[in-house]
Amino acid sequence: MREYQPSLENMEDIVLDSEALNQVASVINLQSEWIKKRSTSLYTDPFLIQEKLKALDVEKLARLFLKVWRPIVELEQITTKSLAVSAKYWRDLLPLDVRWSKTGYRQLPLASSTYEDLVKRRIISEKTFSEELEELWKELLDRVGDKGKILYQEFVYVESYPETLRRAYLTSFLVTYGYAKLEVYPFEEEIYLVPLKVPTPPSDKENVMSYPIPISYEDWLEWRKNR
129-225: which CATH topology? Predict the structure, then answer.
């Protein structure tokens, strides 16, 4: 540039040459910083290490390995204290016939249960699972009406905590089987249930995601208190 600069008459050419010179200087400065950083961090190129290892003979490589090898050794031994603790345990342990004699049991007479008894004890359900889903779906449709949607908590939460859990369990299947949809508003911390008049199970091509909704006993108590 020192040679050709006097012959330049156009200011635009001078500006372009100055910008080019500035960019070249920036590249050189970055390369200098890169080399300085590599040298201070003792950086070694992996390719150079690989070539050095290949150049070493097997015996020298084995000696280097033995020099830097630090095996981990574990030593277990029984102490006098642990022996004393073990002896005390076995000395204080009652015989099997004494220990087993304390395990009492009560023999109950055999009896039969009726269908009503099993339903009452909730061993079996009086309705099938599909019937319970249909019933809850119809309730959801009736409660929503023309509003289009209802708060999840408003629909699921009831006076009994076990019944609340049962309704939450069934509601999850309403959403899974396409009887309803969830609308989640994370900023407002609100979840809505949107019932579908015609059940539409999700297809395999849809991107289905799982959304956990915790229902703790404390949350239920808070809801019941603020009703």
Answer: Arc Repressor Mutant, subunit A (1.10.10)
